[in-house]
Amino acid sequence: xxxxxQRLNNLFFILGIATVVVxxxxxxxxxxxxxxxxxxxxxWLIPILGIWIVVYWLNALAWQSIIRCNTDxxxxxxxxxxxxxxxxTGYALNYATPVGGLGGEPxxxxxxxxxxxxxxxxxxxxxxxxxxxxxxxxxxxxSIFLYLALAAIDYAPMTPLIGSLLGAGxxxxxxxxxxxxxxxxxxxxxxxxxxxxxxxGLKGWSSRFLERHAEALHNIDxxxxxxxxxxxxxxxxxxxxxxxxxxxxxxxxxxxLLLFGIDCGGGLQGLFFTFLYSVxxxxxxxxxxxxxxxxxxQLGVQEGGFMLSIALIGMSTKLGSHVDSAALGIFVSIIxxxxxxxxxxxxxxxxxxxx
Length: 355
Hints:
By secondary structure, this protein is an all-alpha fold. The chain contains 14 helices and no strands. The protein has helices at 2-25, 31-41, 45-68, 80-96, 104-112, 118-152, 160-186, 189-196, 203-212, 214-230, 232-259, 267-291, 301-314, 325-349. The longest helix has 35 residues, at 118-152. It starts with a helix and ends in a 6-residue tail after the last helix. Residues 294-299 and 315-320 have low confidence and may be disordered.
């Protein structure tokens, strides 16, 4: 078993490195254009890259809260340093592979199972993945009300179409909250396998898998349900940390808006509103990225999300800037892509530091 896990680790490593090489070779701008954008970013690249140390730190704390409540006396203690490393590596694999979670979550389960039972490792990873996505919905939900607040003071446009979209967004988020609440109360692994069985051609596989692993799957579901029932403090602290990581991530966009000369008039008030706009841009862009999550590094989707979000903000006369929203969107997306490549490479290299 140990040799099998090592071979799988090597497979993840090779796939990750190969993906990074392909991404660099197929970068969607010329080297001259890339160098121009990097030169424009200048020293701002340091805080843009550095802010993710904090983002991943908050992610790791959120996952640690779940792991602590999902172990027993037979499991080894998992130190925060190891959780932090697995957090970075897991996200690196998620960014680098098609379908978010195809690489990162299996790798986390594989590595975490060295310290605890496979069931506890699986449920801990599934619970954290649920919490990570749950926090996304809370970001989108609260961003709707943030937008409404800005529109009320004429800092964001409001039209019947935008109002309809915001209303649909509220309905969508409320429906998602209901689904998540059911999943946290009753577990969702068994139901997910059964749902997969409804896909043509997979009914037989689903039935066989449920029959062979019925006890383990039900145990995983019971462990998922127990977090919300038995330790609400850990549940809500994990959610708060995940949500907080999105807010901190907004600083990355804020730095780039400031770099581009957008500061909403300057001063503390200008910085405050620039930050609020950054939260909205992150929220809208992440929504686009998660709606089309099967592309590596969200190719094309991220650029489109940034451009649409920034174009929407550019309609506000309060910005006091005549910036080409398309040019700004391309700049932000390129710098974010460079940041992603650097952190992906770092996360994959971390795979070889575990002993």
